[in-house]
Amino acid sequence: MDGSARHDPGGRRAANAAWLRALEAVAPIERAPARLFADLLRERAAEAPGARAVSDADGSMNRREFAALATGFAALAIRRGWGRGDTVALHAGNSAAYLACWIGLSSAGVVVALLNAQARGEALIHAMRAAGAKAAIADEAGGRAFADLPAGATGVGVEDFAGSIEESRALGGSGEVPPSRGVTIGDPALLIYTSGTTGLPKAARVSHRRVLNWALWFAGLAGFGADDVMYDALPLFHSVGGVVAPCATLAAGGSVHVARRFSLRDFWREIVETRATAFQYIGELCRLLADAPDDPFAARHELRLAVGNGLAADVWERFRARFAIPRVLEFYAATEGNFSLFNVEGRPGALGRVPPFLAHRFPAALVRHDEAEGAPLRGPDGRCVACGPGEPGEAIGRIEGAGGGAFEGYVDAAASDAKVLRDVFADGDRWFRTGDLMTRDADGFWRFVARIGDTWRWKGENVSAAEVEAALRACPGVADAIAYGVAVTGQDGRAGMAALVADEIFDAATLAAALAARLPPAAMPRFLRIEKALAATATFKPVKSLYAREGYAPGVADALFVLDTAAGAYAPLDADRRAAIEAGRARI
């Protein structure tokens, strides 16, 4: 019996009921290999055709209308000659029709590449080449992005999204369902790109099996039903915003409101106006809400659930208490991965756990990490070394067969191979590398420590970015912060640097003392840059690779500081100090 069970048997029963709901929900998937998510939509439409399915700023569609639009996109694919295995890129902003587009096209055998709606220039060319797309569908903004590319950069025709919607609506209105064309759950449905926080985005394969598993599993864990309304303000080109949040709700017969984007100003008003019972969060969204000024709409919401990943421990209780959110369902997963955790019990700050009765279904482990080699540590027998309770290590998930244990990988075979760890505990076993360091406590709850590569070594000590960021955010005058390592001429390892968003009470002269009370000497950031806002991906993940590349070069920020270790304070990084550092005359 775990700690949560001893102290809260009612909570244990509720958690076990959620796990059982999820298991029951996904059980039919393998028994009906030709049943795709589009088929499930049509089933829900037959049950209650007039019930609301989706809405956005332009209006709403009931279940019959939404299923018909998705069916129309399948017919459109056939009319265009897009066949099984062909890839078509979708470059558009959030809308209800976006969901119908990828659901319908993929049901006709098309692999839909969900391009970042902000992709422009070289980023767009890279995404198209990675996908190997034979055509593209783009809204007005996406069309301009394609038009701005050099002639012949992608070599494909670009279809207007608005026109495609109207044509698909007419095709779907006939009531005829296009032939299945032999598509099964094992076929690829989507290409979803990694966020690109540490390099160029990679196109991850997502099969119809995974779409259904994500949808039905989350529907079961969250307990979604016909009365639920999901508020989805995350980018639809992301696996959580575009698949997990909407599909889990629709699978259970609920409805989804698709917001154009997350807006701190409009969030609570839209939550109230749509009568949302759940919303999907990611990254720092909850921190932004918790730190925002009072909003009169916040007291009128009908939310029963916030579901997502990346809710920091220091925000969890503050967020729940301030807005009276009855339940938070935190989870950990990766678009391309086979490893996931679910915090069904609502343990603040934890990623989740795998209950003992599901350990065989989700084989996971923590192995010691060799910081110097950037790889799992091997013992004298050549095997990886498992971590003990509370000991940090890389989280890995065993790769086995189809379903939850499968690793579908990327379009790039070399990138896929790099994520597989072999001969871990036995000859021939294969495990998916998450690239994340975690710990697991005596109750089985996993907690995030740092992203591999999100640590650095300085003065012989390993430094965690997460630890430094938490300390910085606790200091007066620091509204937000990220930390990373930068190379310094003539110095071993990497020096810590932080990019800060400062408020009106920020004082660089006193920051060092505040940090010294929270961090060991080696973890003290040696450099600071002050920003008006932190550069981030569309899913609120800071682009640390950009900051690390820029380092402390002149002109990268309005204000740069260096730690004067003798004075115990941060001082402006002027030309003289910079020259002294590069010449090795200054001690940092």
SSE blueprint and pairings:
Blueprint: H1 3-7, H2 9-26, H3 37-47, E1 52-56, E2 59-62, H4 63-80, E3 87-91, H5 96-107, E4 111-114, H6 121-131, E5 135-138, H7 140-147, E6 157-160, H8 161-172, E7 188-193, E8 203-207, H9 208-222, E9 229-232, H10 239-251, E10 255-258, H11 267-273, E11 278-282, H12 285-291, E12 305-309, H13 313-323, E13 327-332, E14 341-343, E15 364-367, E16 369-370, E17 375-376, E18 393-398, H14 413-418, E19 420-422, E20 430-440, E21 446-451, E22 455-458, E23 461-464, H15 465-473, E24 478-486, E25 495-502, H16 508-516, E26 527-531, H17 544-550, E27 559-564, E28 569-572, H18 575-582
Parallel strand pairs: 1-10, 3-4, 3-5, 4-7, 5-6, 9-10, 9-11, 11-12, 12-13, 25-26
Antiparallel strand pairs: 1-2, 7-8, 13-14, 15-18, 16-17, 18-20, 19-20, 20-21, 22-23, 24-25, 26-27, 27-28
How many alpha or pi helices? 18
Whole-Å distance between the termini? 50 Å
Let me know the largest β-sheet.
8 strands, mixed
User: Segments where pLDDT lies below 50 for 5+ residues?
Assistant: 1-7
Q: What does the overall shape look like? A: globular
With strands numbered from the N-terminus, the spatial order across the biggest sheet is 2-1-10-9-11-12-13-14
Radius of gyration: 25 Å
CATH topology of the domain at 455-582: GMP Synthetase, Chain A, domain 3
| Helix/strand/pairing category | alpha/beta
